[in-house]
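I'd like us to work through together how a protein chain folds, taking it slowly. To get us started, please write out a protein record for me. Go ahead whenever you are ready, and we will take it from there:
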Amino acid sequence: MEHGSRRLDDVVAAASDLLRTGRVEEAFASFREVLGRDPHHLEARRGVARSLLRLGDLGAARDHYLQLLEGSPDDVEGLTGLGIVALKSGVPEVAIDRLRAAQRVRPGHTSSAVKLSEALVAVGRSDESLEVLMCARRRHPDSSRLRVALARLHLSRASPELAEQELVALGAMPRGDRSETYAAARAWMELGRHDRAIPLLEALLEAEGVRRDDAAEVGMLEALLALRQWERALAFAETAAPRALRSIGTALPGPRAERVPALIHQYWEPGDMPDEYRVRSEEWGRRNPECVHRVWSASEAEALLADLSGDAQRAFRSLRHPAMRSDLFRYAVLLRHGGVYLDANLTAALPLHLTVLATPGFHATAGKNSVGRPLERMSIRNDFIASPPEHPIVLAALMTSVRNVLDRSAPNLISLAGPPVLSEAFRAVVRGGERGAGTLHVWETLRAQCLRGSLPRPAGQDESHWTRLSFEAGFVEG
């Protein structure tokens, strides 16, 4: 019997190693097998609970943690696990109670201290959060997990110098698990030190026997793009895509979604593009040789709008600022021709054949603070749009924009034809389940950086930006 128990312990130890390296499903199967042979094996039950937590099955994880506490009400892992379940379920007050109980049983316990810190931050008790981590630090001065947690907390408290001190003290590589290494990489990226994040992300991606890590792949792309290492980013994307280049998508009733034509549209007036914009524009053509790239002038844009309707042409003529006219034009050109419309201040990063040209349907990028919202409540940016021709979203956006401009019925200039109009057209199609809309894709802000990198506007342009104009100043009289 003792020999059999040792063999089960060996299986549990091997499963724990699998869990540490991210092979969660394999670990779960091994833990469950041991628990099936010995229902009282505590380490196997802890392993099952941890695996379920990683797999996102919070209800089943809670049940296993409760069973741990039935046998031992002071089981620290059971208390900590229930706290984590509560935190992930959006009830931080319950999490705080469970995690404080774990701290009372084992003061300074690292896992419960880190999660208690997160729960306290979630309810706005940042000072208490810092106190919890510092108390744990006094008991475990060499804990890399506590250093990473402190770095993240200092960042949330707008103390980047203290955050950097903690990260520097970690050395080249944290000594903890994969999640700890990834958290350290993200903290370096928040500090703008993408060069320090890359070795950590490389370690995650190069570890033997570990399944592909989507989060690390996206992080690597983001870091390479932030450093403007375009060729290296392109080479990496060839192996990472499409797993790291995912969008939130929804399929609506109707025929099979059409592909986006290999057309790139931009707009510029008056005259020729300045050099800093021209270089960016030409880069789109160079990175996407399969696409026809066209920069439209004001007269060409007006002719296209006139061909669509007299009202569309009148609306275009009545707008004073080039950026306002470009808002109206982008819906018109996508309605007529389809393709990809992008603003002139965007710099090409990854080839479009890896992203929007590879996936049929309508594509846009999520607005600020929209990631994680339901599609019907999302705000959509309009600086990067990809669409088949005659798509109902761009048709609705164009019709609303023309009406807003002719009636001068909007709370501000940007709401005439800008992102708010595209957002409402998008949400209306989602809510109505409109036939013919096909598949809608919203690229998250993080993933959108894999689509393109945006460089700052030229010096002085912010001060004269058109959104600073009064409402009436946005129109041409007569």
Summary: The chain is about 60% helix and 10% strand. Confidence is low (pLDDT under 50) at residues 459-463. Strands lie at 248-251, 263-267, 292-296, 339-342, 346-348, 362-365, 384-387, 439-443, 452-454.
